[in-house]
Task: structure prediction
Amino acid sequence: MKYKFLYLLLLMLSLTACAPPVYFAKGFKRQVIDSQTGQPLEKVIVVAVWTAGGVGFGDTGLDQRLRVYETVTDSQGYFTIASGLALRNPFTRSPEGATLHAFKPGCLAGFVRGHRRPYQLKPLSEDMSVELQASRLSTVFNTLKDGHDPEDWKKYPRLVLAVSKEVERLMSMGVTSNLPFIPYIEGFSEEDKQFLERFKDEI
Result:
């Protein structure tokens, strides 16, 4: 009898901790501006990522990246993230929202987050070290990618192209450390190179 009660208790706890296996990621529209001039920024690459944390204390190993959505801002600095559904491990917590990764050549790479409206990006300046840009790119890009999926880059091809160019620029300026681990585009198959070609005009 005691073991049956314990089993029922554990079952109830697990059911309350579990969530529906389908997550609805709500879409939204926001604007990105220059933090110094207040002017809208066109062709900012924005990647939204929804991550569900594992149920439990500490690092449970159950964290799950549910959805990745890439877009770019228009001439008025606006970007739109479409709604979508994602399958999820029921032993995870629902994300509070999406984490937004943003990059535009000529601006400091980073996350756009919080409740500030509109979002802001800081232009690069002469007194800003190139090492800082390399470090910020690494934080954004390496946090974003899924190392278990070699074709994960196809979820954010614009960012791959833009970051690849920025890494070349930084290396030409003598930066050799803290650079992001980007896919080796020259080693891609012809099919994958053609896939990337579709996005070159958008960055």
